[in-house]
Amino acid sequence: MGDVRALPRVLPDQRALILGATGSGKTTGAAWLLSRSPGQWVVLNSKYDPLLSSLGPGVEWDVGAVQDGLRKSRVVVAHPSFYDQSSLDEVLFDICESGQVVGVMVDELLYLSKGNGQCGPGLMALLTRGRARGQPFIGCSQRPANITQYAYTESTYFGVFTLRADRDWARVIDYTQCPELRRQREPHFWGWFDTRDNRLTEYGPVPRHDIARRFKTKNSSGTIIA
Ligand SMILES: Nc1ncnc2c1ncn2[C@@H]1O[C@H](COP(=O)(O)OP(=O)(O)OP(=O)(O)O)[C@@H](O)[C@H]1O
Ligand SMILES: [Mg+2]
Fold first, then answer.
1. For residue 62, how far is its CA from the centre of ligand 2 (angstroms)?
2. Which of 115, 116, 190, 201 has the most CB atoms in a 10 Å sphere around its CB?
3. CA-closest residue to ligand 1 atom 8
4. What is the CATH number of the domain that holds 141?
């Protein structure tokens, strides 16, 4: 029998980094990935992307409001102000420290990254300590060269669409040591690199029309039954 791999998803102790130039299909790809990933998630919808807004009820950026929303829905969507770095980090820190098994998806990691590969204490806690608590993570970025190094060092998977700048490619190859990831893909095509066995698999466009339906097809305990 041939080598049949299961389609990508992010399990509770795993992290995925989704990278690609603007318009390459990151948010759509990440939403599809989320639809396949078990458990509860809070989505930081920094760009007010309508697809992400449609995945669950909107909540205030406050740990109590997030927890309250998660009592009613598998996925909640927050629109925090990325100009208020301290509140961004505080709430991420609170989510991490709550010990709750909840995943976090950040649609643009640039807003949470500082210079020199650093980030604030909330994202750092989530990336470096969340795994032990079973808190999965999905982060997207259109500028891989400018995001925090912890997003790379803690990542289980890299989903890579087309990038344009040499320095962005260089950063991705530096942290994955997979030069085959660098190729000009057709729009919405992507490579999925699994760091556990250094395997790269190429995929075509995710079924965009199917994403919202998958979020609606859950049983009462939040398990995806589609
Ligand atoms: N798999 C797909 N099938 C059909 N259309 C797609 C698919 N992926 C993306 N698109 C379309 O391409 C456009 C860009 O996709 P998307 O918003 O996911 O890109 P992005 O990389 O997140 O862009 P940005 O960097 O601007 O946030 C959207 O209009 C989206 O509907
Ligand atoms: Mg996007």
1. 23
2. 190
3. 25
4. 3.40.50.300
> Quick check: is 1 in a domain?
no
Amino acid at 2: G
Rounded to whole angstroms, how far apart are CA atoms 34 and 37? Answer: 5
- Tokens describing residue 149: 């190094």
Give me ligand 1 centre to Cα 112, in Å.
22
Q: Which domain holds residue 208?
A: 15-213
What the block records as the tokens of 1 is 């029998």
Pocket of ligand 1 (CB under 6 A): 20, 22-28, 47, 142, 188, 205-206, 208
- Assigned domain for 124 exists: yes
How many folded domains does the chain comprise? 1
Q: Provide the residue-wise pLDDT of the chain in tens; the chain has 226 residues.
A: 445 668 999 999 999 999 999 999 999 999 999 999 999 999 999 889 999 999 999 999 999 999 999 999 999 999 998 888 888 899 999 998 888 889 999 999 998 888 888 899 999 999 998 888 899 999 999 999 999 999 999 999 999 999 999 999 999 999 999 999 999 999 999 999 999 999 999 999 999 988 988 877 544 454 443 3
- Give dist(CA 145, CA 71) in Å, integer: 37
What are the phi and psi torsion angles at 114 (to 5°)?
Answer: -105, 180
The partner residues of 41 in beta bridges, in order of sequence, read: 75, 103
Using alpha carbons only, how large is the chain's radius of gyration in Å?
16
Q: Is 3 among the domain residues?
A: no
Letter for the amino acid at 60?
E
